Amino acid sequence: MKCKKCGGKAVINMRQHNMGLCKDDFIQWLQEQTQRHIEKQKMFTLAEKVLVAVSGGKDSLALWDILVTLGYQADGLYIALGIDEGIGYSAESQRLTEAFANARDLKLHIVNLAGEYGTDVPTLAKQTKRGRDKPCSACGLVKRHEMNRIARDFGYDVLATGHNLDDEAATLFSNTLQWNGDYLLRQAPVLEERNGLARKVKPLFRFYEREMAAYALLRGIEYIYDECPFAEGSTSTYYKELLNQLENQSPGAKQHFYTKFLAAKKKGLFAESTVEIIPELHLCPKCGQLTSARAECSFCKMMERVQKK
Amino acid sequence: MKSTATLILRGKKYDVKAGSTLLSALNKLEILPESVICVRNGDLITEDTLIEAGETIKLVSVISGG
Ligand code: SF4
Ligand SMILES: [Zn+2]
Ligand SMILES: [Zn+2]
Predict the structure, then answer these.
(1) Is this prediction's pTM over 0.90?
(2) A284 and A303 co-located in one domain
(3) A81 and which of A87, A96, A121, A165 could share a cystine (Cβ 3.0–4.6 Å)?
């Protein structure tokens, strides 16, 4: 297969765009497209400070690489969750993230749950009702809380995550199966800042997972290949596989499912109901972050419960 | 002369016929092309590539979670 731009040998075929590209043209195309999406969606400007949530996986490291290449002021945040499960998952992903940052002389914040709160995700999951079957609920809560905290404490304007189109389409699929109106309303590539919570953006929201893996490989980025041991057999992985089967039969289906949702939303298909569905927010007396609870936020409550034990 | 080649996915080896395209080999093995990237000697190759006898092609799974 030939590169659509230069006629050289293609390294990737993107069937949904009917386009094959060579290594150099693919890297350039992906970077330019990212910049276009950032500008079109008004995610951030060159003057703003961006905090990239990095996990050691291909998407977040690739995102950091792209933003720095494009000249944005992007620092990293790694949260050490203490997930081991016999394969040293967190330790290895931290090592790869640090190696990435050091090799490029980038600034990386590291939050260590053990050092900061004396606990880790598996313990939180076991000791609170949030993790009966899987620790992902406790883990998600920790990640959200700590990302907001670091962004606020260090004065970042924007928080960027490496979610790709497959992640977003799987989430959309799940929310649609349940007609989860609240979540559908809030699912977007940009969430504006709200009472001191940094703006949240997903600059990779239009790229397929496969394109991000190809980018990471072509740029020689060393990322953690194993998935989190708790992700195995998760519904989101299953939904991704289902969507890929659909994609295989009809190239572009995955992309249309998601982008047409965004377009429909813009037209008002999911207009907010006249009844106020966004709860009134208060400041948590302990950490100062916004919460819908009248007392401490769910993160502080969870930590308290664990520290008492 | 050997008329097969080897595909490796997550440590598992698959014997495939040389001379056919990667796409047809993936289809036979019921591996969705959308879920892997094919790497030959460190280079990414597209699915229309013909498989050569005796070679080894690494399949990198693209789905990650977490
Ligand atoms: S899969 Fe792993 S990293 Fe992802 S939310 Fe669950 S526990 Fe956390
Ligand atoms: Zn080219
Ligand atoms: Zn709190």
Answers:
(1) yes
(2) yes
(3) A121
